[in-house]
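Form 12-C: Joint structure prediction
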Amino acid sequence: MNTDRIVQQDQRKQDIKKTRVFSKLANYKPILWFIPFAFFFYLFQIAPMIWVFINSFVYEGKWSLENYHEIFNSSFILQSFHNSVWISFWSSLIGLLIAALLVSSLRHLNSRIKEAIIAFTNMSSNFAGVPLAFAFIIILGTNGAVTLLLKQWGIIEDFNLYSRWGLLTLYIYFQIPLGALLLYPAFDALKKDAYEAAALLGASSFRYWIKIGFPILSPALLGTFIILFANAIGAYASVYALTSGNYNMVTIRVASLVSGDLFLEPNLAAAISVVLMLLLAFITAINQWLISRSYYGK
Amino acid sequence: MENSKQFVHKGVVYSITTLLLIPILATFIYSLSSSWGATILPDGFTFKWYSSLLTDPRFLDAFGRSLFICIASLLLATLLVLPMIFVVFYYYPKLDKVMNLLILLPFAVPPVVSSVGLLQLYANSSFQLVGTPWILIGTYFTIALPFMYRAIANSFTAINLKDLIDAAHLLGATTTKAFLLIILPNLKKGLLASLFLSFSFLLGEFVFANILVGTRYETLQIYLYNMRQTSGHFTSALVMTYFAFIFLSTWLASRLTRGNNQ
Amino acid sequence: MSYVKINSLSKRFGDVTVFEDIEFNIEKGEFVTLLGPSGCGKSTLLRTLAGLDKANAGQICVDGVDITNVSPQHREIGMVFQSYALFPNMTVEDNVFFGLKMKGSSKKEAKVNLQKMLTLVELNGKEKFYPHELSGGQRQRVALARALIVKPRILLLDEPLSALDAKIRKNLRQQILDIQKELNLTTIFVTHDQEEAMLMSDRIFLMNKGEIIQQGNPVEIYTKPANEFVASFMGNYNLISGETAKHWFNINTTSPKVAIRPESIYIKEAGRHYADHISSPKSAKIISHQLLGNIIRYNLKVENEVLTVDLLNRSSERLMPKGSEIELLFNLNEIQPVGT
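Section 2 - Result
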C-alpha cells in the first residue's frame, strides 16, 4: 500500500512538472509582441548609441583614446563645450526663475485665465527651432522692430542677435514655456492650507516661502532645471538657423563633423558625443544628490 | 490688500505672457505687411505673402512630404507601441518600470548624438536608408515613443485591465477580441491626444531631417530653412502657416485630455 | 453524484503555495461560501475554478466532465467581480449583451432575453446608461445580469458586496439569494465577512492559509467550531484552557482549549429558576460593557480569565455598572472542546 502511494506521488510530481513546462512555454507567447517594438527601438535608438560609444574609441581603424585626446587638446572644441555649458546653464536658470514666477502667480488667478495661459504655454513650447530663430531675426535682428524701438528709446546702443547674448535671449525664450509646463503639477501640490496654517502660526509670506514653500518645491525645481539644461545643451536647430552654424557650440561641432562640407570625422564626433553625454550624466548625478539631500527627499 | 496682491499676480502673469507672445505676434504682423524695413511699424498690409506661399508648388510638396512622414511614423509608432504596452500591463506589469527608463533614452540622448550613429550605420550599407524618408520614419518613432507610452500607460492604469479581460474571457471572448472590443475603445482618447501632441513635435523636427536627409527629401522644416535667404515676409507667412497647424493639433490634444478627466 | 467535484486541487505562484490538496463537492443548486481571512487563498481558488488561474495539480469536474484544462471561454462559468469589471465603453445593454454577442447572437434575437434579464435585476429603463452613470449597487446588478444571461452552469461571486455601503449591501444580498433560488443556480460565493456567509449559505467552507479548515452548514460551523481558528473567526467565542475547564465544569477533556459562546453564559438573577444543565456557578466582576443595540456585551473577570457575555437588552435597568460583583452560570451543553 505504501509503495502504491509512492508511485502515485511520483506520477503526480511528473504531471506537475509537465504542466509546469507546458505553462512556461505558453507564458512566453505574449513576449512575441515585444519583438517588432524591440527591433525598431534597437535599430533607431540603441544601435546608434552603441555605434557612437564603440567608435569613439576607434582612431584610424585601431582601438585608441586618440579622439578623446584630440578633444582635450583642441581649444576650438573645448570652447564649444564652454559656450554650450554657459548658455545652457544661464538660460536654464533664468528660464526656470521666470517660469516659477509665472506659475506661482498663476495660482492666484481665476481658473479660466489659468487654463487659457496653460494652453498658451503648451502651444508656445512648440514654437522653437527654425521658426523661432526666424521670428527672432524679425524682431531682434539688426533691423528688427524691437531692436529699433529699444535703440530709439536709448535703452540699448546696439544689439547683436548673433552673439552670445542674442543666443541667450533666444534660449531663455524657449526654456520658459517648457519650464512652466514642468512646474505646473509641482505648484499644484503646494496646498493653500499649508500657507494658511503657517500664517495662523504667525509666519510672514517671506518666511513661509523660505521655510515651507521652497523646501517642498526644491526637488521639482532641481528636476526641472536638469530637463531644461539637457534640452538646451542638446538644442541644435535654433542656433543653426540663427547663425548658419557659425557659432561654436557642441551640437554644431558634432553635426559639422558628420555632415559638414569639409572634414568628416565621425569618430571624433562620436567622442564629443560621449563627453557630452557624460557631462549630462554628471550634472544629473549632482542634481540627484541635491534632491536626496533636500528636505523633501528624506 | 488682497486686491493689490491680485494686481501684482496679474501683472506678473500678463507681462510674461506678453513677452512670450511678442515673437509670435511680430511674425504674424510681418507676414501680413507689404514692407517693414528699418522702421518700427510696417508700411501697409497685404495677403500677397500667403497667396504666393500657398501657390508655391515647392511649399506644397514639402508640406505633403512632412505630412506623409509624420503620419507614417505615428502609424508605425501606434502599431508597435499599442500591443507592447498591452503585453506589459497585462502579462508583465513589473516591466512598466523598465519601460519607463527605456523611454527616457530618446529624451536623454540629444538627436545630434543619435544622428552620428544613424548616419554611419545606415549610409553605406547595402540597404541605403540615409537620404530617404524611411530613416526619418524610424527615428520619428523613437521621438514619439515617450509621449505615446506615457499617455497610453495612463489610460491603462485608469481602467481595471485584469478584471475587464477576465470578465470578457468568461463571457467567451478571446484575448484579441477583448483587446479590440473593450480595451482599445477605452484607450482611444489617450491615444489620440498623444498622437496630436506627437504630431506637433514631429512637424517641427529639424535636426534629424537636416542631418540624415537634408535637401534630398525636402520636408517643411528644411524648406523653411532653405527659404531663409528669400523675403522675410514670405518666411513669416510660412512660419505662421506652420504654427497654425501646431496650434490646431495641440488644441485637439488638450481638448481630448480634458475630456478624459471628466 | 455531486454536480461539482474538486479533487486534490493545488496552486502555486512560483515557490509560494496558495492552496494545496483542496477537495470538496457541491450539489446542484447549492449556495456555498468560501469564507476566510484575506490572503487565505479563497479568491485564487475561485479564479482557478473559473479557469482564470491555472491549477498546478488536481482536477475540477462539473456534471461529471473534467474541465481542468478547459479554457475559461468554454467553461460556462459566470463570475461577478468585486470591482464590477463592467466594460466602461459600453452601455448597460451592451454589457449584458456581450456574452451572447460572443456566441454569435444578434441583438434582435436577444431582445426578449435582454429585457428579461434587466427585469430580473430591476434595471429596466437603464439600458442606454453607461456604467459611470450608475450607483455601485446598480453596477453590480448589471454585472450580475451580464454573468447570468449566458446561463452559466456555475455562478462565482468574488466578494461582490465588499465595495458597497451597508444598506445597499443588505438589499443586494437578498436580491442575489432570491435570483439564485429562482434559477436553482449552483453558486460559489467568496467573502471574508462571517455574518454575510452565515446569512446566505447552504454550506460554508472555512479556509485558512490555503486549507479548508471546516465545512458544514452555518449552524454547524457556528456551534461546533473545529478548532481555535474557527472559534475566533466565527464569533466572539470565549476560549479557555482545557485545564481550567476541567476544574470549573468538572468535565473530562483532553482538548487543550474549550470554547464557550458569549450567549451560553448567564448572569444569575435572584429568584429565577435555571435548567439543570445551566450550572457551575462562578463569581465574577464586571470590567466593562458595550451596548450593541439589542445586545449588551459584558467583559468579565473570573479568576484569571476574561470572559465575554452577551445578554439580550430587555430593559435598561439591567445594565450593570463597572465593578459589580455578580455570579455566572454556564450552559454545559454548549461547551465545545476545540483543537488548536
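Section 3 - Comments
Residues 76 and 152 of chain C are 5 Å apart (CA to CA). DSSP finds nine helices and 18 strands in chain C.
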